[in-house]
Amino acid sequence: MKIKQAFLQAFLPPLFLLYMIMEVNAQTRPISLHPDNPHYFLYNNKPAILVTSGEHYGAVININFDYVAYLDELESKGLNLTRTFTGSYVEPPGAFNISRNTLAPMPGKFLCPWKRSNEAGYAGGGNRFDLSQWDTAYFKRLKDFVATAESKGVMVELALFCPFYEDVQWSLSPMNGRNNINNIDNMIRTDVYTLDKNKGLLAVQDNLVRKIVIELKDFNNVLYEICNEPYFGGVTMKWQHHIADVISEAEKDFPAKHLITQNIANGFAKIENPNPAVSVFNFHYAWPPDAVAMNYHLNKAIGDNETGFRGNSDSTYRMEGWRFILAGGSLYNNLDYSFTDRNEKGTFKFPSTQPGGGSDSLRWQLSYLKRFMEGFNFIKMRPDSSLIRKASLRPAEASVLAEPGKQYAVYIYGQLPATFELMLPTGSYDLLWLDTKTGIYKNAQVARSSNGKVTISAPAYTADIALRIVRNK
Predict the structure, then answer these.
(1) CATH 3.40.50 fits 384-471, yes or no
(2) Which of 108, 196, 300, 337 suits 49 as a labelling partner, its CA being 20 to 30 A distant?
C-alpha cells in the first residue's frame, strides 16, 4: 500500500489525488451491511456488531438531559449504540411505571422538530406548535448529539415515529390537532399512521422525514428506524413502506445511503415479503432468539433493539444479549433505566417496581460480550448447531457461531454436566473460557481431535459462561 502511494505521488500526482479522495470516501461512508456477510455491519472499514445498554430514547427531546455525559459513559464501556426518538411522540411522567423517564420531559423542557407558535394551549404546557415551521434549536441539538456520538464511536438509531399506545400519549403529540395551529382535524390515535385516514398528517410526516434526512446527511453513524413497535396503535404496513420510500427518495442523490431499520414484532415472527429498502430487521424482548433463526435466510442484519420489561436483574439482560448475538444477531440494546436527567452516567437507583433494569455492572457485562465477538473474525461465522450434541449438554443449553474447523464462539447457559463432547474436525484447538460476569478468561486448554470429537470439562461457573475455540494447527 505504501509503495503504491509513493509511486502515485511521485510520478502521477493527479492520480495520487484521486486515490487519496477515494481512500477518504471509503473510510467515511455511513454504517452499512458488511458486503462479505450482510448479517453484520461495516463501519470505518471494519466489521461491527452493535451492543449497548442505553437510555429511554429522550436524549434529544429532553432539554434537561446531558447527552455528553451519557455518551461518555457508553464510550467508557466500549458500547457503540444508542436509540433515540425524534419528538413526534412524547410520554407523560409515570408512563409504563418508569421513574424519571427521559422520554417524559418536565414542563417546559420538551424540544421537538416543530417551532412553537405564539398561541397558548399545548397539553404539555406552553404554546402550541406550528407544523409548517422548524425549530432551529431542536435541529442544532439533534446534530450536536449525533456528532458527539460519532466522535465517541456510538451509532444512533433514530426512531422517526412511534404509535400512540393510549390516548394520553396522543394527547401530548405535537401532531394532535389540539396541540398545533395548522387546522388539522382531530382524529383517533389509530388513524395517525395510515395513508388514507390521517387527515393531512401524512404530508407533515413526509416533510419531517425529509428534513431529518437532509440535516443528518453528512453523518456516518446514523440508522433510520421507520417506527417503534408498529404492531400497536393502528400503524399500517403500507404506511411503513411509504416512509421507507420517502427516506430512499430523499437520499437518492447522496453518494452513500443510510441503513433503514424496521421493527417487526415483540419476541419473534417470520418476516414475509420484506421491503427491499430495509436492511435491519428489529425485534423487542427477543428471548429466546427464535427471530434470528426464522429470518436468517434473508441475509440482513437482525436486531434485538429493546429489552427491559422482565424485572430488574442484570443476569436477565446479560443472558438475553449473549444468547441473541451468539445465535447470529448483530444488534442488541438493553433499555437501561439507570439513565435519567441528573444521572446521565447511569447512577439512578430506580425502585424495584421499575419494569426493567440497568446498571454499571450490566454495561460492563455487555461490553465483555462485544469484546468477545470482536476477538473473532466473525464475518466468516454462521450459527452452527453441530458443534455440541444436545444430549451431552443437558441440562445446559448452548448457542454457537462457527467457521467450521477454524473458529467457534460458544455461549452456555444453565449448568453443564461434568464433561461433554465437542464435535470438532481433526486438528488441534486452543480453548479459553470467559467468565461473562467479570470478563476474565481462564482455564486455557488444548483439545486434539482425531476422530471428530473431543471430551472436555468446564471450570466452575454460575448461570452462564462463554467458550472461545480457535484452531492452532
Answers:
(1) no
(2) 337
